[in-house]
Please model this.
Amino acid sequence: NNVNYTETRTITLDTTKPLIVFNANTDADFANVSRLNVFINVTASDAGGSLVQNITFRVYNSTTLVNESTVAREESNSYNATLPRDGVYTFNVTTFDYAGNSNTTGTRTITLDATKPSTVTFAAPSANDGSNLSVNAIPINISATDNGVLNQVVIRLYNSSNDQVNISTSSFLSGTSNSYFVNFTGHADGV
Model:
């Protein structure tokens, strides 16, 4: 009896998509940040048995892919995408397992705005610098313009000792140009 055997081969059948989720420290959906980078952190795993082969991070502007990076790991992975300019970007992450199955996170939107507002000026009826007023209210009107999105205006009132005695913050603003008026009242002489 002459018998011959082939080597033993192991085959893994895997029709299950790998799992991928954003971790808590990933930039939030619809965030508005004062920097030129997007931080993405994900965890990928594969319950199908063939293991995660790679994870691809993608960042888009309104028309095209602007940043992409692929890593080969099966664990928590983070990516810090540096971008060239202020703007609205979207990002998502795709993972593949060794069987060719894939899965993609939801897409998040982020606004990057690292440029300070272009103008912030006092407008009427604000008092002129150095004014002496015989009133018990201090009206302040601020006009501000930003090349991106103007988020809020904060007005702080200081006394002659440079101690902050009042503060007022606008509610969320939209657009590129806004005015914010506040009338500070109830302050003693010398403010």
Summary: The chain has no helices and 14 strands. The longest strand covers residues 87-97. The two ends are 109 Å apart (CA to CA).
